[in-house]
Amino acid sequence: MPKTIPPGKSRQGSRGLPVLIVLVAGLALAMAIWGILEIWGAAIDAPSNEQPGGVTIEGNEQAPAN
């Protein structure tokens, strides 16, 4: 006849506070990284005043005629 093992003893590990701490810490870390990347993404996506490929003329000088 097989032995009857209580469910509490047959588990691999106990649930409770350590698991909750790991899950909450992982979630907080993911949110912190997401926030940092949002700020960094907004900083590199800022529009510049300079037109790409454009020629700028300073002062009252005129461009040379061809």
Structural class by sheet pairing and helices: mainly alpha
Fraction of helical residues = 40-55%
Low-pLDDT parts are none
Query: How many strand segments?
Result: 0
Describe the sheet with the most strands. none
The average pLDDT is 80
Radius of gyration: 32 Å
DSSP strand content: under 5%
Q: What distance lies between the first and last C-alpha atoms, to the nearest angstrom?
A: 104 Å
**SSE run:** HH
Shape: rod-shaped
Report the total helices: 2
Topology:
Elements: H1 7-10, H2 17-44
Keywords: Membrane, Transmembrane, Transmembrane helix
Transmembrane segments: 20-43
Write a structural description.
- The chain crosses the membrane at residues 20-43.
- Keywords: Membrane, Transmembrane, Transmembrane helix.
- The protein is an all-alpha fold and 66 residues long.
- The protein has a domain at 19-43.
- Helix content is 48%, strand content 0%.
- The chain is built from two helices and no strands.
- The chain is rod-shaped, with a radius of gyration of 32 Å.
